[in-house]
UniProtKB/TrEMBL annotation, chains A, B:
Keyword annotations: Aminotransferase, Pyridoxal phosphate, Transferase
Organism from which the protein derives: Ilyomonas limi
Domain Aminotransferase class I/classII large: 35-348
Single GO molecular function: pyridoxal phosphate binding
InterPro entries: Aminotransferase_I/II_large, AspAT/PAT-like, PyrdxlP-dep_Trfase, PyrdxlP-dep_Trfase_major, PyrdxlP-dep_Trfase_small
GO biological-process terms attached to the record: amino acid metabolic process
Protein name: Pyridoxal phosphate-dependent aminotransferase
Cofactor: pyridoxal 5'-phosphate
Length: 397, 397
């Protein structure tokens, strides 16, 4: 039987970088070992019952398509939400998307053509690679480093890689995987750069509320670059509603929004029920997020403190999101992350970590780094770090 | 203020072909005119309450990501569903997608590279154009004609346009917009063609249950081309659950499924709540669909009968889906469809139709044709056709 070939695009499409470790985690579990999952961004926080109830109690008889740009009532509600963060927009600046994922893809497809280049500070969220393959665009990485907590690279490093093909800069703020929170000053430096070269600035602000010391400065608050800024957002982490697949793309560039809506029309509409959930979330009590944030902050404080006590480990204090990057006293974090699942256990437990290699495009960078998501409670975090410490001793013995 | 350019891809991305008529329909409604919407595929049938209840009554505390390929329990349930239609598959042949839309996009991206060609009998579902722009592939149309009810074009017409760049043939069966139901013999002809040229056959079977005389013959029932066939599906029309955005891609080609899962991993997961709804739908009583189908059949019979009584109108009897194409005694259906909304009313009502031009790529074809969706009850259909008849008299006066 003849078999037609897979597309080149399909061949170069990267699998999830964490995927290769999954069989080892599953094998460990089959042996009866408890695995602490510090590898994924699935929060353990309960989804607010009120917003689940908004779906449960909704009265409708037909589960209809919504508007391609999302329900007008929800788009208007989001205007109210952003106003609380001093972001002034109109509802016509908002397109509701199927998760932040679709917002990123629509942004890339609307701003860049195949062969165009997008500059992203690395390490970066691994799925940007996948969306770039789908859109046929080339990611040009600019390195950031653990030694200064992954601050924005010097603007000269961006200038060096700008070519006529450069159409956009993409930042994630606060950052996944580093947890770094960009300062207003850093955003302003980027503003000058995109203004000078007339580039798009695509800002992934999925973790906006997760800022533990300073407040968040949004790319939408930059002035004089209203037509350059495209902000992508999601309710996934904010309300522990990852499975809802509701995000948004926000821009004051009217032609860009018209273009994004054409992509939105092709796929008809985002999920209807979850838009009800997203809309209800804007009405959560004002203190809802204080409690969640306090919990994450105490987890971060504990994780960073414990990690830095482990001999040879260095973990800068991340200002936002719920990730931390740590340097381990190993040559190759990929090997170590596999070994700890396959050949190690401590009190019948082990730890699953995300090797940082999946977040870097240059293979020489981040070889001894891992990303840890503090989406487990403090007891689990303590136990997981104790386990990791023991593993490092055995691994290096 | 400088503004960065929209991508070429974004510029050529087609807007919804029905969109340009929407302002005229809205203006008519503002004048107090009732508009019969025969233009869209949003069924008026109630979503089965049992499947909405499956979401309402689900017990979970965190709305988590599902697996990228969809919940295993749902994928296994779909095996049971397809078995009822004599389609034998394994759950590992199924990837749950965000609507049939995403399944089509994933199929195009996995099977074709930018610049590759996909042959589609025209008229065809307008959003295939959008997905083709996103995937950078070229649609090569092969004309079908109203005179034989839009049967599969002769295989020589396909042979004529096959080039080294041809990678796939796409059919929609039963067809949107024509309602044509391809016969087993026609499918077998396609089987020989794809076998000979080693092409993919992408079969959009969104309307599988909507077959009013003969049964449906699925592309997945073709033998000897298991690695060539990719079937895309959706629950939207089947259970009147368009807003759920739950579809599926099914193929026995293991490498293809592995590739599709990489695209699925980039966007993390399809909506979680609606997968529960889709899973519950497989357990609807065996006679659930009989009632729905009888209702649609009686609507089709009425619509086709009434249309063919209107002087100058010809409407072949469609074997499936819930669309009919009709030839009107007008030179330009686009102009007429605008006029009937803007300058006409009858008993304070008018009709919104979809001009067929949006479904053809060759502008000389289908100029006097419209698509009618029989998603309204019989009383409304009768009134709408009476209104259309009067409009044709006035328009041609």
């Amino acid at each position: 039987m003849k078999t037609p070939a897979i597309s080149q695009r399909g061949e170069v499409m990267p699998p999830s970088p964490i995927r290769k470790l999954v069989p080892y985690a599953e094998a460990a579990k089959k042996k009866g070992i408890h695995v602490y999952h510090l590898n994924i961004g699935q929060p353990d926080i309960e989804t607010p019952p009120q917003i689940l109830d908004a779906v449960r109690d909704a009265h409708f008889k037909i589960l209809e398509y919504s508007h391609s740009a999302g329900n007008e009532s929800y788009r208007k509600k989001l205007v109210e939400y952003y106003r609380r963060y001093n972001i002034a927009i109109n509802y016509t600046d908002v397109v509701i998307t199927t998760g932040g994922s679709e917002a990123i893809l629509f942004a890339m497809m609307s701003c860049l053509d195949p062969g165009d280049e997008i500059i992203i500070p690395e390490p970066f969220y691994a799925n940007y690679n996948g969306f770039a393959v789908e859109a046929g665009v080339t990611i040009i990485p600019v390195a950031s480093y653990i030694d200064n907590g992954f601050a924005l690279p010097p603007i000269e490093d961006f200038e060096k890689v700008i070519t006529p093909k450069t159409k956009a800069i993409l930042i994630c703020n606060p950052n996944n995987p580093t947890g770094y929170l960009y300062t207003q000053q850093e955003l302003d430096t980027l503003r000058q750069l995109i203004q000078k070269h007339n580039l798009y600035l695509i800002a992934d602000e999925a973790y906006r509320e997760f800022c533990y010391e300073g407040g968040h400065f949004s790319a939408l608050q930059l002035q004089g670059v209203e037509n350059n800024v495209v902000m992508v957002d999601t309710i996934s982490k904010r309300y522990s509603a990852c499975g809802a697949r509701i995000g948004a793309l926000v821009s004051r560039n009217k032609l860009l929004i018209e273009t994004v809506i054409k992509f939105a029309q092709a796929r008809l509409s985002p999920p209807t029920m979850e838009q009800m959930l997203g809309e209800a979330a804007v009405d959560l009590p004002a203190n809802y997020f204080d409690v969640i944030k306090a919990e994450y902050k105490s987890r971060r404080d504990l994780l960073v403190q414990l990690l830095n006590k482990v001999p040879g480990v260095y973990c800068p204090n991340p200002g936002g999101a719920f990730y931390a990057m740590a340097k381990l006293p190993v040559d190759n974090a990929d090997d170590f992350c596999k070994w700890i699942l396959e050949d190690f256990s401590y009190n019948n437990t082990t730890v699953m970590l995300a090797p940082a290699s999946g977040f870097y495009s240059k293979p020489e960078l981040g070889k001894n780094e891992v990303r840890l998501a503090y989406v487990l409670n403090k007891e689990a975090i303590s136990a997981a770090v104790a386990c990791l410490e023991q593993a490092l001793v055995e691994y290096n013995a």
